[in-house]
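B., you asked whether I could sanity-check this one before it goes into the benchmark set. Here's the sequence:
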Amino acid sequence: SGERDAQALAQAARVSFGDLDISDDGRYLYVMNLYDRRLYEIDLTDPLNPVAPTAANKATKIKSWAIPEPCAAGTGVARPWGIDFYRGEPYIGVVCDASTTEVSSDLSFTIYSLDVASGTFSPKFTSALDFPSKFSVDESAIVEVIILLAKIQGVALVLTTVFSLRLLS
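And here's what the prediction gave me:
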């Protein structure tokens, strides 16, 4: 039928997990929680024989970090999404959704790296998302070049999630 589940649609890209990834050494599972906007690190102890945390050791086996806020005040909400690893560091993608202003020029994304030891996120790449949501052949090629350039610059994060979020808004 043509009916939509309004409650489910309102929660799309806001609840559940945005991405999962394993650290380069296989020891840590990283999880992006869309609801609380935190990146979680779960220590699996042994990459060859992973061990899930228990209630008794979760305080030492699970860490989390609040996602940075890239949105200008009053423009929208930061929507974290993707995780990837590059040279041993986790990278995350965060979209400023422009939900407050609903102005396309307020749409943007930022890619951050995380220094796990200090818990500090550092911005690595930022771009506006004020392009049309429908691509012609030429524009698709431009998007592919942008993704390739981002990877060459050391950002091995797949940006398609960013474009997917743009299409949802």
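One thing to flag: The helical segments are 6-11, 58-61, 137-152, 160-168. Otherwise nothing jumped out at me.
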